[in-house]
Design brief:
The protein has an 8-stranded antiparallel beta sheet with strand order 3-2-1-8-7-6-5-4. Strands 9-10-11-12-13-14-15-16 form an 8-stranded antiparallel β-barrel. The longest helix is centred in the first third of the chain and has 26 residues. It starts with 16 loop residues before the first helix and ends in a 9-residue tail after the last strand. With 261 residues, it is mainly beta. It is built from 1 helix and 16 strands. It is elongated.
Length: 261
């Protein structure tokens, strides 16, 4: 209530005891709610399972957004370069959750609705937010099977098959360039060469990586995929030089497609 007092005079109001008790109760209730709200974020104990094998959008203090995934051995970035973070670890110290990440120690500042907010233990201005990505752009089942680059599709006819660009004694097999994706292995063929290597796919970001996952040198970024067509951007290393191919179109060989020679 608002009260008007004569100028120059001081007045004390004697409020009823019940009103005072109600005010005290309200103050205590509000204090408890504030404490509970603060404790919810401060006492949350971060576990490895909160991050392991999950994909996140990392937003740093410069508002840069980076696609990352926490794996058993490392944190992998998908920002189309070759940087691989050092191994990560979750620690607990004085009831605080600490994440060792990118060679620094970050404290869990807040658990958000879709992720976590961390701050650098030595520099409060250095922080980042992780937003978990749950939606999948593709499913691994969609890439299973054999694919051939569209530019070689006409070679499926024996009449159009060019002379082998290489010659190896005792080898009379000519491989039309193709990629066959099995559950965890990709068999690639090209002219007189055939090799098998592990691959890993991030279904959330549509990325395929070949070779050792934390040291991979070849990547595909899937831009479009259907039951019989896939369009990808390719990044690879040749003679220590990073090279790129954009909008590479591949055709899936269906049961009715002529066999490769």
């Amino acid at each position: 209530k608002n009260h008007s007092f004569p100028a120059g005079k001081q007045r004390f109001l004697a409020e009823p005891l019940a009103t005072i008790r109600m005010q005290k109760l309200n103050i205590i209730t509000m204090s408890l709610l504030i404490l509970m709200s603060c404790n919810d974020s401060s006492i949350y104990q971060l576990q490895n399972s909160d991050l392991l094998n999950k994909s996140f959008l990392l937003v740093n203090l410069n508002s840069d957004t980076i696609q990352i995934e926490f794996t058993d051995n490392c944190v992998k970035t998908y920002n189309w370069n070759f940087r691989t973070y050092e191994p990560w670890e979750v620690q607990t110290k004085n009831d605080s959750s600490i994440l060792f990440f990118d060679g620094k120690y970050f404290e869990l500042a807040k658990k958000t609705e879709d992720g976590f907010e961390f701050k650098n233990l030595r520099n409060d201005s250095d922080y980042f937010v992780l937003h978990e990505v749950s939606e999948r752009l593709i499913k691994i089942e969609e890439i299973n099977g054999k694919w051939i680059e569209n530019k070689y599709l006409h070679w499926l006819s024996a009449e159009n098959l060019p002379p082998p660009p290489c010659h190896m004694e005792g080898l009379d097999t000519f491989y039309i360039p193709s990629f066959e994706f099995q559950p965890d292995t990709c068999i690639s063929t090209k002219f007189c060469n055939k090799k098998s290597e592990p691959f890993r796919i991030n279904e959330h970001f549509g990325i395929i990586e070949f070779g050792g996952f934390c040291t991979t040198r070849n990547q595909w970024r899937i831009k479009q995929i259907s039951s019989d067509t896939m369009v990808v951007d390719v990044r690879y290393v040749e003679e220590s030089t990073v090279k790129y191919i954009e909008n590479e179109k591949l055709i899936k060989l269906l049961p009715t497609t002529p066999k490769l020679h």
